[in-house]
């Protein structure tokens, strides 16, 4: 059963059996989550967190794994280890090139689809150090535990980037951190650890459940320029659905996407849209005065492209961009 069917089922049950327990005033306590392999996972947002795992994650940033890809090794990764300078010096990492970090979300790992897709479009476009963050040890835990540990994963990433900067001289103003879903909050926390000095942070449909009132979510001050792309932020959507960045894009209104029939498809569109803009820079948003204009599709403000590779991108406000149903949208 798809996640949206579960939510509809809960709504019907509430009419018969009484009100549903809502978390953050928006999300049902119990819902189904379909991963990209079509496997359904039961979520209880009030499930007790695994404190033993969280303590291990907090004390040991080496639980994060960092896999480097460059044009010299575009498909076979090299492992970089925090506080192991030789692992960096013996790799193909080149501080003269931009550094792109990609963070997956819940129930994912370095092999999840967004990682090779975004990696490949970057390496075809330019010489780049693409670093895939694999935080599967926490990401495979139940959702409340994974969500609670996101700030620690982000701080671990920040510590690694500080180590990389000190070891190689790689400047923060050539770093772009990209995260999807829970990973969208991971990269925010990494940028915060570094004092907001990284050039860009892109949060791809940052996770919604347990984050509406969470002060550890991604913020505009986490980088020099912070952008969020919201694609599934409707009622009980998987994304947060409200502005969190310097610039917030709401493709097609930010709730559901053309060609999608499940919430996970809508959710994944965020990274698919972003990847499509790396070679093309063709999805142009129009600034909106408020969310009513976003919803009504009558935004007439300034233009700004969604996504793209440029490290000096700047802007502020909320934007709507309308897309097609299929790649390149």
The tally of domains stands at 1
Read across the widest sheet, the strand sequence of neighbours is: 6-5-8-7-9-10-11-12-15-13-14
List unreliable stretches of 5+ residues.
1-18
Count up the helices: 9
Q: Strand percentage, roughly?
A: 15-25%
Q: In sequence order, what are the helices and strands, one letter per element? A: HEEEEHEEHEHEHHEHEEEHEHEE
Tell me the CATH superfamily: Alpha/Beta hydrolase fold, catalytic domain
The end-to-end span amounts to 28 Å
Backbone structural class: alpha/beta
Q: How many individual β-strands?
A: 15
InterPro entries: AB_hydrolase_fold, Lipase, Lipase_N, TAG_lipase
Subcellular location: Secreted
Family: Belongs to the AB hydrolase superfamily. Lipase family.
Organism: Bicyclus anynana
Report on this model:
This is Pancreatic lipase-related protein 2-like. The protein has 329 residues and is of the alpha/beta class. It has helices at residues 3-17, 51-59, 85-89, 114-125, 136-139, 143-168, 182-193, 263-280, 291-296, and strands at residues 22-23, 27-28, 30-34, 40-44, 65-70, 73-80, 99-103, 129-134, 175-180, 200-204, 225-229, 247-249, 284-288, 303-305, 317-320. Strands 6-5-8-7-9-10-11-12-15-13-14 form an eleven-stranded mixed β-sheet, with helices on both faces. It has a two-stranded antiparallel ribbon with strand order 1-2. A hairpin with a 2-residue loop joins strand 5 (65-70) and strand 6 (73-80). Helix 2 runs parallel beside helix 6, helix 4 runs parallel beside helix 8 and helix 6 (143-168) packs across helix 7 (182-193).
